[in-house]
Amino acid sequence: MKNNRNAFFVLAGLFSLVFIPQIAYADSSWYWISKQRPFDLLPWVALATIAIEALAINFIPKTKQFFKTLGIVIIANLISFVIPYFIEYLSQSWYGSWDAILDSGPIYNVNLLFLILTLAAETPIVYNVLKRYVSKEKVLLWTIILSNIVTTIMVLVIEHTLCYGAWA
């Protein structure tokens, strides 16, 4: 039985080497081909994100508190937009300057981890502040989650369409 398990792991390892090749970019550097980097788009996508989320949260569950909704969505988005950059800075602070970090690789703002961080940061903040202004708390919760998913996908498409680069 133990021999069969060892044979399985050896075959699985060989299979992965052949069919799942790893690409290494040793002694190469990333450069952006597009005029802008994802960080350059941040103010515009942040404004669009805040507008879409605030309007959705205000009109779907009907908070009837537009300026309060807008304010809390702005605060929650500031927190969720800063977290990925802070993590990137901590993980690559040995590069020295902020520009060197942003130019060090294909650092896109949005990915699956960003969506998870956004939901983890924004949902409790927005939900806990605005739940007393709605009659259906579940509708509020799902509106927050779905509007964040929609805006995150929107930003991902914008970034990957307008910002592209290559390894040299």
TrEMBL record:
Entry keyword set: Membrane, Transmembrane, Transmembrane helix
Transmembrane segments: 42-60, 67-87, 107-127, 139-158
Protein name per the record: Uncharacterized protein
Protein's organism: Anaerovorax odorimutans
